[in-house]
Amino acid sequence: MSDLQNDLFLRALLKQPVERTPLWIMRQAGRYLPEYRATRKRAGDFLTLCKTPELACEVTLQPLDRYELDAAILFSDILTIPDAMGLGLHFTEGEGPKFSNPITQIDDVNRIATLEPINDLGYVFDAVSLIKKELHGRVPLIGFSGSPWTLATYMVEGQTSREFRKIKTMLYKEPQMLEQLLEILAKSVADYLTAQIRAGAQAVMIFDTWGGVLSREAYLKFSLFPMKKIVEKLLQLKTETEVPVILFTKGGGNWLPEMAATGCHGLGLDWTTEIDHARSLVGEKVALQGNLDPAVLYGSDKVIRNEVNKVLDKFGQGSGHVFNLGHGIQQFVDPDKLTVLVDAVKELSPSFHSPV
Predict the structure, then answer these.
(1) Which helix (H) or strand (E) holds 234?
(2) pLDDT single digits (tens) 100-120
(3) What stretches of the chain adopt beta strand conformation (E)?
(4) Strand-strand pairing, 96-99 and 89-92
(5) Positive/negative CA dihedral, 90, 92, 93, 97
(6) How far is CA 91 from CA 45, 48, 96, 160, 321, in A?
(7) Which end of the chain is less packed: N or C, by CB atoms within 10 Å?
(8) Which are the catalytic amino acids?
(9) Which ranges of 67-174 would DSSP assign to H, the alpha helix?
(10) pLDDT averaged over the chain?
């Protein structure tokens, strides 16, 4: 961490003393920023934006040029791995991602088992290297991936789903097939995040967007278990400095102790879980990241400051808190409102920390 001008984010994840609470924002490089929309238009389409390292670097840095954030996060998409597996990823305006060749039978699973998607994801690692270089040590760079379960939902459903009928039918009707798919994805995600770390990522986050749609028993087996295997592999890496791992399950507030037991460094919280309750459940075992409701940013400046103070107060004194939204920033938010949030965290959080 010695080459960083600002290492607050990493210190907080490692439960080391900090002088104030660090913050970054999920989807901080996104559609709410006019400069992002301009770059996206120049790229022509979303996938070209993701797959062009220079453009991915440009949009990754845009929020850092506008706001005093404490981390950058790689601009990419969670579906890069299934795309590299030949499932035919494409984006339909207003409808989100779709796959032309979804997983429908065991032959499909056996086919992707022979693939090494990592070989076709060089553009991601090139982007990581370029972003790391262009950051000049300003702040740490976060790499990320979708979780095996979340990737599997898209790969089996073929698109975003509300009922998850196909993947849940597989779970209860052909669980061995799902387990085989998740095993393949766990290996791919571990390899993917390892390569991001080798390229320069200083922390990594696993986004389990759809783990919250499962029952407790199904979550532990089909979502958390594959993530635990990934964490274990990442913790075995030999790196110059420790690379923290964050797990985030949207709707996962009921399973925080089990998530903390994976060996990860931090847990992301959505806004449905109170951060004081989360801290009481996991104690000092892991850091906590979150968890302001993204819709708060539609409120007045006074409301935003008050809600920021509530989150800080509920976490309480000491390190181990990374301030963030409970999910991604929404596209219709006024960019100036994020300035209010950033200023509030910087102004209000030092009183929750001892001088370093």
Answers:
(1) helix 225-235
(2) 999 999 999 999 999 999 999
(3) 72-73, 89-92, 96-99, 141-146, 203-208, 245-249, 266-268, 287-292, 321-325
(4) antiparallel
(5) negative
(6) 9, 11, 6, 11, 35
(7) C
(8) 27, 31, 40, 77, 154
(9) 80-84, 106-113, 122-135, 148-157, 165-173
(10) 96
Q: pLDDT digit string (tens) for 203-237? A: 999 999 999 999 999 999 999 999 999 999 999 99
Give the H or E element holding residue 256. helix 256-260
Instruction: Tell how strand 141-146 and strand 72-73 pair up.
Output: parallel
Flag whether the pTM goes above 0.85. Answer: yes
Look up residue 287 and give its two tokens: 């850091």
**The residue type at 172:** Y
- Reading the block at residue 333, the tokens are 């938010």
Of 201, 308, 211, 299, give the one whose Cα is nearest residue 251: 211
Task: Report how far residue 317's alpha carbon sits from residue 18's, in angstroms, rounded to the nearest whole number.
Answer: 11
Give dist(CA 266, CA 15) in Å, integer: 9
How distant, in Å, are the alpha carbons of 60, 247, 339 from that of 30?
A: 9, 21, 15
**Residue 2 scores a pLDDT above 70:** no
Could you tell me the residue ranges of all domains in the chain? 8-267
Residue matched to tokens 């968890």: 291
Give me 121's structure tokens. Answer: 């994801």
